[in-house]
């Protein structure tokens, strides 16, 4: 049994209603801001999809056939329902701001500038939650975050990832530390045995260091003198004369400039990393998220 083709587009139905109201395809085309040939093509496609003659083209303008008048009334209901759906969706966007979760280094040193730039392009509110990379991935997976920014070495395959920036970790010490006067770089073997002040497990900075040491031939747990859950706490400990730390160059840039910390060169280790945005594969598209991703990527 023949059936009506399922590819009836809402914009074709909207155009049919405009033809009925305005009396001609050309007037409907102007209202829809498309060319008359495009409007005529849409009407012919709609007729083929429905297997009905909707317009009498032998008359001046465009007069609806009996079938066309019936379909137009049904089309008004469909168009009205679609408009209500779109209005409701926009209201939900307003009631439910975009929820962004960012790992600590990104949240502290990059996200504020990104959000400031975003404000110049849209008024849609954004709520920011700070966590480590493991926490960000969990928030995106359980739908408590619409977008995440992570700095860990890997992203689960069930999420979509996009690189927004590259970063580098640096070995830093206080100016009074013995390594501050050292000229030879620290190798992988020495760093693998060195007690450090580190970020907590699950932090992207810690994961990148562990991954770099493993690739250099030193897998397993690193001997941490102390694990702290913030970049600020790690820096305070190092500046106070504590053990060295390996932190993002973003996190220590100010301290290196004013001499509160000193970078110690390393060799035989790849301490570069990617900073990435992550989303669920089934995430609904939102303009504000696309804009934020463009800002984060420098576009």
Automatic annotation (TrEMBL):
<keyword id="KW-0238">DNA-binding</keyword>
<keyword id="KW-0805">Transcription regulation</keyword>
<dbReference type="InterPro" id="IPR036388">
    <property type="entry name" value="WH-like_DNA-bd_sf"/>
</dbReference>
<dbReference type="Pfam" id="PF03466">
    <property type="entry name" value="LysR_substrate"/>
</dbReference>
<dbReference type="InterPro" id="IPR036390">
    <property type="entry name" value="WH_DNA-bd_sf"/>
</dbReference>
<protein>
    <submittedName>
        <fullName>LysR family transcriptional regulator</fullName>
    </submittedName>
</protein>
<feature type="domain" description="HTH lysR-type">
    <location>
        <begin position="8"/>
        <end position="65"/>
    </location>
</feature>
<comment type="similarity">
    <text>Belongs to the LysR transcriptional regulatory family.</text>
</comment>
<dbReference type="InterPro" id="IPR005119">
    <property type="entry name" value="LysR_subst-bd"/>
</dbReference>
<dbReference type="Pfam" id="PF00126">
    <property type="entry name" value="HTH_1"/>
</dbReference>
<dbReference type="InterPro" id="IPR000847">
    <property type="entry name" value="LysR_HTH_N"/>
</dbReference>
<keyword id="KW-0804">Transcription</keyword>
